[in-house]
Amino acid sequence: MGKFIKDNLVLVSGVVLPVLLIAGFLVLSHLPKALLDPPQFDFLLAVWSYDHQQPRQYTLDFEVRDGALRGLIRPVNDNLPIYNRQFASLFRYHAAQNKFSEIDFELPDGLEELEQAKNFAIPEAGHLELDGASESPDGYRFEYLGYRSRGGLLGELFGMGQRNESQYVLRRNGADFELPRLPTQAWYDPQNVNFLGWIMAEDRAP
After folding, report:
1. Most buried one in 19, 113, 136, 141, CB count within 10 A?
2. Model pLDDT for residues 98-117, shown as the tens digit of each residue
3. What's the CA gap between 35 and 180, in Å, rounded?
4. Reading across the β-sheet that carries 175-178, which strands appear in turn?
5. Where are the domains of the chain?
6. Is the backbone of residue 139 left (phi > 0), alpha (psi -120 to 50) or beta?
């Protein structure tokens, strides 16, 4: 065996080195995730869309103010047409189950005659204490990956590039915790998914 290896060193190296390279790549790519503690904090997302069949004369937005979620409605401005924000859905991420659920909410009345921006409360999320910071207390950030591969150059070369189906992750210290797809049948542009805030408590006084 030793003589065979010595006489065929180039051939053996050509077989063994790629195998070792692939094995090392797999270990290095999965090690950070293996050492990653699961996220502990729930959070809220807003997802916007536009219905070409039923356009509205206003746009929707959301913000976290004084720990509470608020809605904002603006009349459509022809000089700044944000048409893709005319319809909105709210989702809550449940860290313990690694899943999303939709939060139904009602828009205020009288929007047909809306002439100026109007704030409105969202009672369905009124009990939630929110923190709008980009980073959670346990060090995670909500990030959009898109369709790009996360396997890096070696992953592309060896066909092992990883793609996250939901296109979103929670990232901490360079490692990604993959998030599930949103539970909706409606079409939406993945780039129109916006992070709103981390849920710090659920007994906030209305």
Report:
1. 136
2. 999 999 999 988 887 888 88
3. 20
4. 141-144, 168-172, 175-178
5. 2-34, 43-201
6. left
